[in-house]
Amino acid sequence: MARKVPIGVLISGSGTNLQAIIDAIEANKLDATIQLVLSNRADAYGLMRAKNHGIPAEVLDHKNFTSREAFDAAAVETLKSRGVELVILAGFMRLLSPVFVKAFSNRMMNIHPSLLPSFPGLHVQRRAVEHGVRFSGCTVHFVNEDCDEGPIIIQAVVPVFPEDTEETLAARILTQEHRIYPRAIQLYSEGRLRVEGRKVFVDGLTKEETQALLQPPLEG
Ligand code: GAR
Q1: How far is the CA of 16 from the centre of ligand 1 (A)?
Q2: Less CB within 10 Å around the terminal CB: N or C of the chain?
């Protein structure tokens, strides 16, 4: 049996990605143990999800710290004291300083609701709809010192329709987020992710023919 990688999940809100990770672990599809759920907001619903599954959870309120670095140092300390090897940012809505990134170099993942490097930052589903793109999706990447910039591990693509609203697109993307985040963590757990510069190689992957995606599709 594969080893179980000790992870810490950082959240700021609803925590549906956290739930997908919990569900994958409980279904024996993900070899990980959640050592800690850490939220920077006391009202994050994800804290309730952790509690419901008997997972340790803590609040570290950023408002109690005088600088970003001080908050990050406390977060690193908390995660290390719990034996966390891999940090999972799951809707954690704070920029990280080098203090945090260096402490978990190539051991911290983030999920972002766009096909990076398109639409980094905030309100990305709305920006994708307004731009009129035909495809969007989600990206799991390793975190480096630049926001939404690190080496890409896995992406899922979804169609975007002219009738879409921010909400309908966000829901379509979120469904795929819940599939790819547990998968990315499992690949890490199996020791199959190798970072070389900007690229992430996945060991043991059989290269399959990929077909082009078209939206709208060709007719006839
Ligand atoms: C997700 O869509 C995630 O990709 C996004 O926040 C949502 C959190 O949902 N993250 C970012 O935008 C990070 N820049 P959740 O709390 O239900 O997992």
Answers
A1: 8
A2: C
Alpha helices in the chain (DSSP H): 16-26, 46-52, 68-81, 98-103, 124-131, 166-189
Residue 14 near ligand 1, beta carbon < 6 Å = yes
Tallying the residues shown for the chain, one arrives at: 220
Tell how far the Cα of 156 is from the centroid of ligand 1, in angstroms: 15
Residues designated as active site: 112
| Global pTM exceeds 0.70 | yes
As to burial, measured by CB atoms within 10 angstroms (0-12 exposed, 13-18 middle, 19+ buried), residue 68 is middle
Q: What is the pLDDT of residues 119-154, one digit of tens each?
A: 999 999 999 999 999 999 999 999 999 999 999 999
Does 16 contact ligand 1 (Cβ within 6 A)? yes
Domains of the chain: 5-202 (3.40.50.170)
Cβ pair 89, 110 in contact under 8 A: yes
| Residues 113 and 138 sit within 8 Å (Cβ to Cβ) | yes
Q: Is 17 in the pocket of ligand 1 (CB under 6 A)?
A: yes
Q: Which residue has the tokens 């690193």?
A: 76
Residue 11 alpha carbon, nearest atom of ligand 1: 16
Contacting residues for 114 by C-beta, under 8 A, at least 6 apart: 120, 124, 125, 128, 136, 137, 138, 139, 173
